Request: fold
Amino acid sequence: MTARETDKTVKIPSAIDLHKRLVAEVKPLHPWYYESSKASPQQALAELRTAWDRCFKKVSGTA
Reply:
């Protein structure tokens, strides 16, 4: 079993959580971030989250 399955206190961040963190860390260092559309980074983070979910399901399914 994975740590996520055995320890319910392990929180996997959602795409929204990841976007909030990205904004908090990028905005102060890169003011140009808000000159572009925020849809692209949001979509990329959502797809990354989906990829991680698929990866963990595949790994836990083979064990």
